[in-house]
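Exercise (ungraded).
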Amino acid sequence: MPEATTQTITSVGIDIGTTTTQLVISRLTIENTASGTFVPRVEITDKEVIHRSKIYFTPLLDRDLINAVAVSKIVKTEYLEAGLTPERIDTGAVIITGETSKKENAKAIIEALAGYAGDFVVATAGANLEGIFAGKGSGASAFSAQRHQVVINIDVGGGTSNFAMFHEGKAVESTCLNVGGHLIEFEPHGDRIIYISEPAKIALHSSGQKLQVGERLTLPQLRPVVKAMAECIVEVLKTTRLSELTRELLMTPTLRLEFIIRKVMISGGVADYVYASQGPATMSEVTAFGDFGPLLGWELKNCLDQAGFVLEKPSETVRATVIGTGTQSVNLSGSTIHLQEKTLPLRNVMVISPFPITIPDSIQGIAAVIKKEMQRLQVDHTEGSVALAMIGPRTMSFANINILGQGILSGMEDYLSDNKPLILVIEADCGKVLGQCMNANANRPIEMVCIDQLEVEDCDYIDIGKPLMGGRVVPVVLKTLVFNR
Amino acid sequence: MEVLNNELEKVILQSVLEELAKKGLLPTQSKGHVMSAAMMHTSLNSDNSSEEMVTFPSLDEMQIANPFNADAVRAMKKSTPARIGIGRAGARPKTISWLRFLADHAVAQDAVFLDVSDEFLKQNKLMSVQSAVTTKDEFLTRPDLGRRLSAEAVITISEQCEKNIQVQILVVDGLSSSAIEANIPDLLPALMQGLKSAGIKVGAPFFVKYGRVWVQDHVAALVNSEVIVSLIGERPGLGTAESLSAYMIYRPNEKTVEADRTVISNIHKGGIPPAEAGAHLAEVVQQILAAKASGVKFNQQK
C-alpha cells in the first residue's frame, strides 16, 4: 500500500461571462499535515496558477446564443499553449456567469464543454456561487481570515455585480445585482449606441431618460444613468430597505447585512477603473471596449467614497472569478472515510437532506423519514444517483451511529434494490465508523461511499472524484445547476 | 492544646513583626492589621454543607476589556485550547482565569489519582487484572512494576483468556482513568465491529489496572496473539484529561524497543472522536496483520 505524503492535482477553471471568456490552469498540492502519531489529516496546502489564458471576448452566434464551437476552440488552443491534454486534467469547473447564464442554451453548452475538457471537469453556475468564487479568487476570502475583518467582494462584470461577504475566510452572505459595464453597447471608441439591454432600460426609465439604439451620446448624458447603477451597488451595502430600482435589478434576495463591513474589494472587468487614479474624460475613453465599463468603475469608486466605505485592493481583478473557479471549486473530504474505489468517480449526484432539523432517535423513525423523502422526490427508480446529506448522528456515541446506519439501510432498501451505490455525505467526523456500521449490518455486500467533514448545504448536485492519497480522501465538487430564473 | 498553640503563634508572630518593623520593612501602623489578620480563626477546610458548584463562563467568551480587534481575538481563541485572550488584572490573571486554571489542574489530578470504577468495568464487560504494582503511589514511583503483570494476573490470564488469536485488546488505565471512562464505551464496540467484519479472530478484551504501555508485551507472551492493542489513558494536561492513545505491536519479544510500536494518539471528543477512531484503528490493525510488522518497520513498508 504505497502512501505518498504529498500529491499534486491539476485543476482547470473556465469562466464564460457576458463579455469575456477566460481559462486558468492551476496545480493544487495535497498533503497529510498531521504528525506521525495522529490520525491523518489531508489538506490542500498549495494552489499555484500555472497557466493564465488570454482574455477573449465571449464568442456569440447572435445576442442570445453562445458559439459553443468557438468556445471549445479557445479551450483547445489554451491547453496546447499550456502543454496539457484533457486527460491530464484531474478536476475543475466551468462556470457560466452573468447575462450568458440566463440564456436558455447555456446548459447544453456547459455540458458539451464538460465532456470535452477532461474527465472530471464539471458544469456549474448560479449567481451566488459565482460571487463566492470571485471573492475567493480576488483574495477577499484570504484577507478576511488574515486580518480578521469582514470583507465584501463585489465582482462587477459585463452583465452582473456579484456580492460575497467573507468572515474569517468563510462566505457568509451573497447576492447578485443586474448591473454591469456591458449593459449598453457602443461602437468602440465611439459614441453611437448599438444595443440597450433590458436591465439598462429599467435604469434609464427610472432616471427619466429615453435613449434609442443608433443615438449618439455625450458624456454628460451618459453619466446620470451610470451613476444611478453605481448607486444601486452601494445601496445594497448600506441598507436592506432598497429603492424600487435596486429591487428591480436584484436577481437574488438582497444581503441581510448581519455583519459590519470593514473593507470593500472590487474585482471583475470594471475593477481596474475603480482603482484608477482618474476617471475617463471623453466618450472615446469610456467606450474603449464598446461599453461603459470604465465610467461605471469610476462612478462606483466615487459612490463608495461618499458613503464612507474603505476600499481595499484585491490581488486579482479581471481574472478573480476564473481563478476562484479553477482553484476553489474542489473540496476535500475528511481523511477517515469509507468507500470502494471502483464506485468512483460519480458525477451529477443529486443531494437530498432528509433531516433538516433533527434526526429521529430510533431505527424505524429514521427509516420512515428517509422513505418518505425518497418517495416525495420520486428518486427511488430514476436513473441518477442520490446522496443523502446530513449533519451527523444525534450524538457521536457508537450506539447512535449504529442506529443511524441501520435506519439508513432500512430507509434506502428500495433504492438499493436497483444495485445503486449508497452515497452518504456527513458533516461530523464519523464517515468511517458509519460506513463500517452499515457494512456490518447489511445482509449482503453493498457498494458504498461514506464521506465526512463536508458541508453540502444549499447545493443541488455533487461530483465525487477518484480517491487521492492512497484512498484517504476524495475530491468533491459542489454544484448548483439551478440557472438564474 | 489549641489555645496553647494559638498563644505560641501569637508570640512568634509578634516578635517577627517587631523585628520587621525595626528593620523598616513594615510600617508600624500596619502591624496591627497584619496581626489581626493572622490571628483570624477561619478554617482552611471549607464546610461541606456550603459547597456550591461554580459555573465558569464559556471558554470563548471575550475576557479582554477593550480589544482592538475582537474578531481577531475570537478567531485565535478558536484555533487553540491554550489560555489566550484572557485579559489581565494589573500584572495578574483575572480571578475567573485563575479559578479555571486551578479547576483544570484539579481535573488533571483526579484523572491520575482516581481509579476506573468497578461499575464501569462491569457495564463494559471487562475482566480486570492488575500489574505488579500494589498501590497508586507505587504506580507513580515505579514505572518498571507497571510494565509487568502480577503473579495473580498471570494465572488469571493463562486460565481464562483465549490463546493463539490474531488480536488481543487491552484497556489500560495508565495516567488517566477519566480517558478510559470517557472513550472506551464508544471506541471499543467500533473497533470490535470493524475487526469482526474483516473476519479477524479477536480475544475478549480485558482491563489492566496500574498498567503502563509495556505491559502489553507480557500479555502477548501469555496469549500468543499476533497483534496486541493497548488502549491507554494519556498523561492529562490542562487542556483535556480525557485523551487516549492506542499502542499496537506485532509479536513483541524480549528485543522489542519503543520504535516497534505503532501509536495513534489524541483520541477524545475534541480530537478524533472515539467511535471514528475505533473504525480507523480496525483498519490499521488489519494493515499491521498484513505487513507482519508494526512501528517504524511498518511505516517503512507503506
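Further reading is listed at the end of the chapter. For now, observe: The two ends of chain B are 73 Å apart (CA to CA). Chain B touches chain A through 33 residues (CB under 8 Å).
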